[in-house]
Amino acid sequence: MILLWIGNVILLFVIIPVVVIILRRVLAPATEIKAYADDITEYGAQLAPHLEALSELATTRELVRQANTDLERYVRALDRIS
Asked: Which residues of 48-79 are buried (b: 16+ CB within 10 A; e: fewer)?
């Protein structure tokens, strides 16, 4: 009977506090990770409409090439004038 009481005391004053400490150490980072995941979910969903402009990227590149060609011709013409 005495061993049962000793076991109960050890459980109550040693094992349970250790489990609570370990649980706190696990739950604190888990709640931080959840907050980061919620932020990623919220702001990641706002990113999708902006990705539609990627389909126009080829057109933009072509326009830049044309502008560069025209700019080179303009600079050469200025060199000939001066």
From this structure: eeeeeeeeeeeeeeeeeeeeeeeeeeeeeeee
Band (16; pLDDT cuts 50, 70, 90): very high
What is the spatial distance between Cα 25 and Cα 3, in angstroms, rounded to a whole number? 32
| pTM, two decimal places | 0.49
Residue showing tokens 């004038």: 81
- Among 39-43, 44-48, 75-79, the range scoring the smallest mean pLDDT is 44-48
Query: Where are the chain's structural domains?
Result: 2-81
